[in-house]
Amino acid sequence: MTDPDQSPDALPVDGAPDDRHYLRAVTDMAERRAVVTQEPIYNLKGMKLVDKGLRVDRQVYDRLRQHQLRQRFDTCLTVENMVTVESVLEVARLHCQTDTLAGLWVYALADERGEDRLLDPVRSMLLPQPLAFMLTVMREQHPALFAHSVRMMLTAVFLGIQTGWSERDCVHLACAALLHDVGALYMDPVWHDPANRITGAGRKQLAAHPVTAMQLIQAQNVYPRSVAQAVLEHHECMDGSGYPRSLPGERISPMGQILLVAEMVAAFFEKYADEAPAQRLSLTLRLNHRKYPAALVARLLPVLQIDVRHKDVRVAQEDVENTIALLSQAFSVWEALSAPLPAQALLPASGQACAFVAERLAALQKTLFEAGSHPQQQAEALPHLRGDAQSLAELALLGREALWQLQHIVDATHSRWPQLAESADPGDAAVLQWRNACAARLAVPPGAAP
């Protein structure tokens, strides 16, 4: 592989992240675990506020928050049963033996050392105390996020092995994947609730977490630059539709490309654990071939085909009909609203919200046509699929993925142009009317009449 530390992009440097939510999670953990200062804590004037060996509780936390500290509060703390490389290794080994996704990677390696090949890079990871402490907070306060990080770590290592990376490079890859979501600890806890749907302006906080994680990793000065860069890039997409920097594929680092695929894979097996995750993921990767690195997808698709443990997806024909109606309306409403707009406003160079929506909807329709899943094509195929449960299920999965992409376009207009309602520009008014129409229709529960 090429030198992962050589990149044309400078990492962004922002101010210190808002640590209120993270430190509140620390004090909540301290209610159940013994969190103790491992060194004295001083304020900026050199006054000792807390001695070494003091157990931290809510009162201590509230007192310290009244001062500007010489050092980060959490770097002075230790906790019983803190996460270590050895404990991560044990959790990863358990995943290899019991987790569907990790088990798939072990099986796909197809040799007696399959599990060890996944775990060897984990054994050699570096885990500085401040990051080990953060992972402990994650494990104790957000266990699903910790499990996701381990699952993503094993997925990333598998992709590294399949791509021919050396074990040393896979060690750095394992570190990046395990730590990729430490920035999520700084988000409002409501974002960790699976029932909470992140939309609109609230996505700004979501978009900030890769930057926060990158800053936290950089501050340790123990990892190659490629690790922090990959963490920053783990939500980017090859077509430039990701975040936080909307990078096109050629500007995403090799390690970042592996992380963005691993993030997608792990998320699918978590969200659809009992609903044919491998089948769903395979369809999604094929439908979104511009979003994900083609070489990595090519290595994944054959592996997904060997997963025979999923349950069949059962759908009603009415669900497919509703999906076709939702997509058709989204496209036709935008066509009507954008028709009176001047052609210049719809050019990408204009930078306007209407140009963004026009470009993304055109790209989505092109992708759907190429996959045979445009609503026009689905409507034509549907009468011929009565009684064909497998084909109907595949059509439904493709339609659901298209609806997800449509929702992503709607959400992006919220985060990039939050003041559309105050604008008098005709293009902005068209986007506002279109996204309101989409939001109303997309809020309809699956199976209900649109």
Can I get a quick summary?
This protein has 450 residues and is an all-alpha fold.
Category by helix and strand content: mainly alpha
**Regarding quaternary structure, how should these chains be classified?**
single chain
* Major sheet size, sense and barrel closure: 2 strands, antiparallel
Helix content: 55-70%
CATH topology of the largest domain: Hypothetical protein af1432
- Strand count: 4
The average pLDDT is: 85
Per CATH, the architecture of the largest domain is Orthogonal Bundle
In angstroms, what is the radius of gyration? 24 Å
Q: Can you tell me the overall shape?
A: globular
Low-pLDDT stretches: 1-9, 444-450
CATH class of the largest domain: Mainly Alpha
Distance between the termini: 50 Å
Number of helices: 18
Beta-sheet strand percentage? Answer: under 5%
Describe the protein in words.
The protein has 450 residues and is an all-alpha fold. It has three domains: 20-79; 85-126 and 142-305, Hypothetical protein af1432 (Orthogonal Bundle), CATH 1.10.3210.10; 317-442. The protein is 57% helix and 2% strand. It is built from 18 helices and four strands. The protein has helices spanning 20-30, 58-64, 85-98, 100-109, 114-123, 129-141, 143-163, 167-179, 203-218, 225-232, 254-271, 277-287, 294-305, 317-338, 353-370, 375-381, 389-416, 426-442, and strands spanning 35-37, 41-42, 48-50, 77-79. It has a two-stranded antiparallel ribbon. A two-stranded antiparallel sheet has the order 2-3. Strand 2 (41-42) and strand 3 form a beta hairpin. Helix 7 runs antiparallel to helix 8. The longest helix is centred in the last third of the chain and has 28 residues, at 389-416. It is globular. The model is unreliable at 1-9 and 444-450 (pLDDT under 50).
